[in-house]
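Q&A FORM
Asked by: J.P.
Topic: structure of DUF2848 domain-containing protein

PROVIDED:
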Amino acid sequence: MSPLRFGVGDEVVEVAVTAALNAGYAGRSQQDVAAHVAELAELGVPAPTRTPCLYPVAPYLAMQTDEVPVQHGRTSGEAEWALVVTGPEERDVLLTAACDHTDRDLEVHGVAWSKQAGPDVLGDRAWRLVDVADRIDRLTLTAWADGAPIQRGTLAELLDPGYWLADLRERDLLRPGVVLLSGTIPMLPGVDQFADRWRVELGDPDTGDTLACDYAVRRMPDPVA
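REPLIED BY: S.T.
REPLY: Here is the structure written out as tokens.
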């Protein structure tokens, strides 16, 4: 399994992924989360027993790629940020743009299963979390599906990275090689999430800098069985 490589300012930082975790139902307003759980239940998605959730996935699913192969037409991404722990120091925690590509047909049978069926696509540039921590809520998160805006918000809508760092520390998971995705923000009304291309941007309005991940969705041939 190839290590992840990030441009961080003038440096290149590499890390081999040892554990990957997907947060779910991780909105900062748990009242809004409860409403979202109810909406998903109407679509047949099982409700969690607690929120927020944390879904371990195979480490090889955290990847940097420009193409995601899928088995059918009902998969889609989710705009997220990712924490990447690259070393033992506070400055070694990176923040980057990410997209959790999920199998929506499988999701109705189990969210954990659907997370395991698609990759977590990460950008190839990152910021050190300590460099943006003082303005984390002002950072923006935007996604496009086939070039059309599908998600738009700020990190203030999600549980902040500090929450998850404390959670990882309590679980003895705050160690090099751990990747954690944040959970996502709501989709805009009336959008079509089943697209051939996804792009997610994490923006810093204070500096004008933007991190991105961008990939095509490729339908594989039907199985011969």
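FOLLOW-UP: The two ends are 29 Å apart (CA to CA).
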